[in-house]
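Record 1 of the preview.
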Amino acid sequence: MKKQLLLLVALLCLTNAKAEDRVEKFGIFNHVSVGAGVGILDGISFEAAAPITDFVQLRLGYSFLPKFSYTTDISYKDNGQDKETDVKFQLNQGNFKFLFDILPFRTSSFHVTVGGYVGKEHFVKAWNSSPIYGLLPGEGLLVGEYIIRPNDDPTSPDYGVANAAIQVNKFKPYVGIGVGRACPRKRVSVTGDFGVMFWGSPNVVAKADDGTWQKMTKDNIGHDSEKAFKIMSKIIVCPVLSIRVNGRIF
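->
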């Protein structure tokens, strides 16, 4: 009987030691890792991660897309004459992010992620490369049948420039799934994630002389462009596919 009791005590001590060892490995904010990665529509990202419990890890970071741009010709009216000018389109994606990885299985790195991105609302920006001055009332760059007038204020840094953008929400909730631990059990890990940002209904906006951004409506853009703008306005989610390398600091 004594031998059986001693065996039971030893077993309980061993079990408790293993449990304590597990908590020591992944306790509440007792480790920190840093990571860097690349992704589709997430761009280049840098993150810091820490465990909250054995089943939840917190990630904080910043991601951005390089400012790729291209230039094309856009028509405009100048004192009654049809002319063209170069207009540059540029990606303008950059977001801070806070994400919670929920790991439902202790022995697996599969995780479900929830959180959000907070950042720039003008996903794509556009402006004419060469300033345009002295246009008559009602003249400007033609986008569909909508006229975007260059800034008429000589004291403004945007004088002669017409600015437009594709606008999304500043706050973008995120849900996704992935494999790998952002805060690795060993020193290094590789993680992959796929999810979606809910960035709202995109709008095309133009910058007025007073510096405010005015939304273009179907009444502004004309029949020829209405279908394209209607389709774009229904793309309320942005897919995100990313891969990262993570290293635990302590």
